[in-house]
């Protein structure tokens, strides 16, 4: 599977027995939930300062970058506009992610409750259910670890290149000669960002913004990976339950045997419908004296729909503008490794959600095929309407669409990258 290697039996053995707590199994993930104040439990007071600090960094950077864009337009400096515009889009995305942790807390809590229920269910069920579930969870943990390393690595590389550029400037230029390099192209009227201490403040601030954004994005991408793969794990449980629905059932003329088979099928069908409802439809339950809804897909869409659609709109401009700005600087003799890293990172990190949503769509559709694979003709006609409803529900598109937007998929990602390349060529060939 993409981004992960096969899980070995030795890795599974650690979780083959006993009740496993998801908060211990996905310890890093729950630490991130705590830092962003969406943990379904006690929240430390210091986390307020973390979120306020990240929001302030993004807002101040946006203000300065807005002035930079104004300056670039005023001087008709396309390269400066594209560089400032790229970072402006990135900071806007950061604020959107933070807003989700403020206004969609109930959705995050629903995910955590569903994880606890599924862990408890498979631990008590045992057998192939437990093995399939924990193989999936171990793979999920590996993917999350890789995503953390990759996203953090991009930020570290950007800061490292900024420091290297400054060292190279100090080694090749005498005092007062040229302009010291900054990670962000800041401009603010009569302020000279090349003078001390303004330069030192701006240099530290821009590097801090990059690290804060990486931490913010790690939370977003890791949560998304776990959320989607939790839905996939739930779909696997449903498929296994459907495969076991007719296990031991055969045609008979004996009334007692018929009654026994009928009760057995009803019990198994009740379990299937319970899991399918918790994945696909809103199930009302009482929690902490208030009504809430446990629904993995709807709650996932409630948080990530706006993020994914925002990505869909800005991915082509960010990739195009960063590539164009880096190319323009290279032609003037300046190698801007930071923009190249940003461009590569943007392509990779936009591909991941597209791939995950495609995987999710295929997995949910596979529930329909599992219904076809069982010998339902051996059972009474009573279960057939339920199977039809499950199949119809499984073939419905994901609730991640809106007017003016395309579906979130690998195909849409491919189209957006083709658009970015077309825009890039248009800018390169334009006589401006």
From TrEMBL:
<feature type="transmembrane region" description="Helical">
    <location>
        <begin position="85"/>
        <end position="105"/>
    </location>
</feature>
<comment type="similarity">
    <text>Belongs to the insect chemoreceptor superfamily. Heteromeric odorant receptor channel (TC 1.A.69) family.</text>
</comment>
<feature type="transmembrane region" description="Helical">
    <location>
        <begin position="335"/>
        <end position="356"/>
    </location>
</feature>
<keyword id="KW-0552">Olfaction</keyword>
<dbReference type="Pfam" id="PF02949">
    <property type="entry name" value="7tm_6"/>
</dbReference>
<keyword id="KW-0472">Membrane</keyword>
<dbReference type="GO" id="GO:0007165">
    <property type="term" value="P:signal transduction"/>
</dbReference>
<keyword id="KW-0812">Transmembrane</keyword>
<dbReference type="GO" id="GO:0005549">
    <property type="term" value="F:odorant binding"/>
</dbReference>
<dbReference type="InterPro" id="IPR004117">
    <property type="entry name" value="7tm6_olfct_rcpt"/>
</dbReference>
<dbReference type="GO" id="GO:0005886">
    <property type="term" value="C:plasma membrane"/>
</dbReference>
<keyword id="KW-0675">Receptor</keyword>
<keyword id="KW-0807">Transducer</keyword>
<protein>
    <recommendedName>
        <fullName>Odorant receptor</fullName>
    </recommendedName>
</protein>
<keyword id="KW-1133">Transmembrane helix</keyword>
<feature type="transmembrane region" description="Helical">
    <location>
        <begin position="201"/>
        <end position="228"/>
    </location>
</feature>
<feature type="transmembrane region" description="Helical">
    <location>
        <begin position="52"/>
        <end position="73"/>
    </location>
</feature>
<feature type="transmembrane region" description="Helical">
    <location>
        <begin position="146"/>
        <end position="171"/>
    </location>
</feature>
<keyword id="KW-0716">Sensory transduction</keyword>
<dbReference type="GO" id="GO:0004984">
    <property type="term" value="F:olfactory receptor activity"/>
</dbReference>
């Amino acid at each position: 599977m993409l981004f992960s290697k096969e899980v070995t039996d030795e890795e599974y053995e650690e979780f083959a027995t006993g009740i496993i707590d998801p908060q211990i199994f996905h310890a890093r993930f729950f630490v991130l939930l705590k830092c962003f104040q969406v943990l379904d439990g006690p929240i430390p007071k210091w986390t307020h300062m973390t979120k306020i600090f990240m929001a302030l960094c993004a807002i101040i950077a946006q203000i300065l970058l807005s002035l930079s864009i104004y300056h670039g337009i005023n001087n008709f400096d396309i390269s400066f506009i594209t560089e400032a515009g790229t970072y402006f889009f990135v900071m806007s995305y950061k604020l959107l992610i933070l807003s989700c942790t403020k206004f969609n807390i109930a959705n995050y809590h629903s995910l955590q409750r569903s994880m606890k229920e599924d862990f408890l269910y498979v631990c008590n069920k045992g057998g192939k259910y437990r093995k399939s579930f924990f193989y999936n969870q171990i793979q999920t943990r590996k993917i999350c670890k890789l995503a953390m390393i990759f996203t953090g690595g991009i930020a570290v590389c950007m800061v490292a290149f900024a420091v290297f550029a400054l060292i190279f400037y100090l080694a090749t230029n005498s005092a007062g000669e040229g302009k010291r390099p900054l990670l962000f192209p800041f401009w603010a009227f009569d302020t000279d960002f090349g003078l001390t201490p303004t330069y030192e403040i701006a240099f530290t601030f821009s590097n801090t913004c990059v690290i804060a954004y990486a931490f913010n994005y790690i939370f977003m991408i890791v949560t998304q990976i776990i959320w989607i793969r939790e839905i996939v794990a739930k779909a696997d449980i449903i498929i296994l339950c459907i495969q076991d629905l007719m296990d031991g059932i055969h045609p008979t003329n004996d009334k007692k045997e018929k009654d026994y088979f009928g009760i057995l099928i009803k019990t198994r069908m009740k379990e299937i419908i319970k899991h399918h409802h918790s994945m696909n439809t809103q199930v009302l339950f009482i929690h902490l004296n208030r009504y809430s809804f446990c629904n993995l897909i709807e709650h996932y869409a409630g948080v990530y729909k706006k993020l994914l659609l925002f990505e869909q709109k800005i991915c082509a401009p960010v990739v195009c503008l960063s590539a164009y700005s880096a190319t323009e600087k290279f032609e003037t003799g300046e190698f801007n490794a930071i923009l190249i890293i940003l461009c590569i990172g943007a392509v990779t990190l936009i591909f991941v959600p597209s791939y995950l949503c495609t995987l999710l769509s295929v997995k949910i559709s596979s529930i329909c095929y599992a219904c076809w694979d069982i010998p339902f003709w051996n059972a009474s006609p009573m279960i057939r309407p339920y199977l039809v409803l499950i199949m119809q529900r499984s073939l419905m598109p994901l609730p991640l669409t809106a007017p003016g937007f395309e579906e979130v998929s690998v195909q849409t990602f491919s189209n957006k990258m083709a658009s970015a390349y077309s825009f890039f060529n248009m800018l390169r060939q334009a006589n401006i």
